Amino acid sequence: MSSQATATAGSYEFKAETRQLLDIVINSLYSSKEIFLRELISNSSDALDRLRFEALTSPELMEKGEILEIRIEADTDARTLSIIDNGIGMSRQEVIDNLGTIAKSGTREVLEQLEKGDKGRDSIAQLIGQFGVGFYSSFIVADKVTVVARRAGEETATRWESDGGGSFEIGDDSRFLRGTTVTLHLKPADPDNGLDDFADHYVFQNVVKRYSDFIPYPIRTKIPLQEPELDSEGKPIPGKTTSKIEEVTLNSMKPIWTRPADEVKDEEYTEFYRHISHDWSEPLDRLSARAEGRIEYQALLFLPGKAPFDLYYRDQNIGLQLYVKRVMIMDRCEALLPTWLRFVKGVVDSADLQLNLSREMLQQDRHINQMRKWITRKVLDHLKEMRTTDEEKYLKFWNEFGSVIKEGVSGDPDNQKRIVPLLLFNSSADSTKLTDLAGYLERMKEDQEEIFYLSGENRTAVESSPHLEAFAARGVEVLYLVDAIDEILVQALAEWEGKKLRSAASGEVDLGAKEDNDEADKELEEKKEEYKSLLEALQGKLGDQVKEVRLSSRLTTSPSCLVGEEGDISPQLERLLRQTEGAMEVPSQKRVLELNAKHEVMTKLQQRFAEDGEDPALDDYAELLLGYALLAEGSDLPDPSKFNRLLAELMGRGL
Question: Do the beta carbons of residue 145 and residue 138 sit within 8 Å?
Answer without folding.
Answer: yes
